[in-house]
Design a protein that fits this description.
With 194 residues, the protein is an alpha+beta fold. The protein has helices at residues 4-12, 36-46, 49-53, 85-88, 122-134, 159-168, 176-193; strands spanning 22-28, 31-35, 63-67, 74-81, 94-97, 104-108. Helix content is 36%, strand content 18%.
Length: 194
C-alpha cells in the first residue's frame, strides 16, 4: 500500500471535477480500505441508508476517525472485505487498477444531483464531506503497554559459561514464557560475545 502521506495527498487533490467521483481503494491483506473523501463517498453515496436497508446484512459501515501523527488534524477511513465490494459499492462506472500490483484501485461512481436542481460544485461537496467528518467521533489513542523487563540473570561472557547455563537450566520445570526469557537472555549474551 502507498504510505499514508501519499494517500492523504491523493485524497486532498480533489479540485478538478473529474476527481470528485473517484473512490481510491487500497488492498491491505484481505480487505479494501479507503480514506477521507473516498471513505465519505462510500459511506454517504454508494452505501447510503437506502442501499444498506436493501441488503440482508443491514449493519452500518464502520467509519473510524483518528488523530494524525504526521501533522495536526484527523483522518477517517473505512474498510471492508475484498469479497464485499459489490455490497459497499454496488453501482460503479469503472474499476481500474492504479498500480501494477492491484493494491490500489480507482472506482468511478456517478454523483447524485442535488435535490434543489442546482449544480454540483467542489465547495458544496467539500462542505458536505467536512460536515460528515466532523460528525464522526475521534477514536482515542491506545496507551502503549510497556513490556515487562525480564529479571536480570547472572551472565558469563564465555561460550563455556553459556553452555553451562544451558545444561543447568531446568527446562521441563519452567513455563513457556520463562523458557523464552531464558533463550532471549542467552541470545543477548551470545551477541555480546560476537
Amino acid at each position: 500500500m502507498a504510505s499514508l502521506a501519499d494517500v492523504f495527498q491523493i485524497e486532498n487533490d480533489r479540485l478538478k471535477p473529474e476527481k470528485w467521483n473517484k473512490i481510491h481503494l487500497f488492498k491491505i491483506g484481505d480487505f479494501w480500505r479507503s480514506y477521507e473523501w473516498s471513505a465519505w463517498l462510500i459511506a454517504v453515496i454508494t452505501y447510503n441508508d437506502k442501499v444498506r436497508m436493501a441488503t440482508r446484512d443491514r449493519r452500518p459501515l464502520q467509519v473510524t476517525r483518528m488523530e494524525r501523527t504526521d501533522v495536526e488534524g484527523t483522518y477517517c477511513f473505512v474498510g471492508f472485505p475484498l469479497k464485499s465490494i459489490e455490497k459497499y459499492i454496488p453501482t460503479r462506472d469503472s474499476f481500474e487498477s492504479a498500480d501494477e500490483n492491484d493494491k490500489h484501485v480507482v472506482v468511478t461512481i456517478s454523483l447524485p444531483q442535488p435535490a434543489d436542481g442546482s449544480e454540483v460544485s467542489y465547495e458544496r461537496l467539500a462542505e458536505a464531506f467536512n460536515k460528515w467528518k466532523e460528525g464522526i467521533e475521534i477514536k482515542p489513542k491506545k496507551e502503549k503497554k510497556e513490556k515487562p523487563v525480564p529479571a536480570a540473570q547472572p551472565t558469563t561472557q564465555s561460550s563455556g559459561g553459556i553452555l553451562s547455563q544451558i545444561m543447568a537450566y531446568p527446562l521441563s520445570e519452567r513455563t513457556a514464557m520463562e523458557n523464552i526469557q531464558f533463550i532471549q537472555t542467552l541470545k543477548n549474551q551470545i551477541s555480546a560475545i560476537l
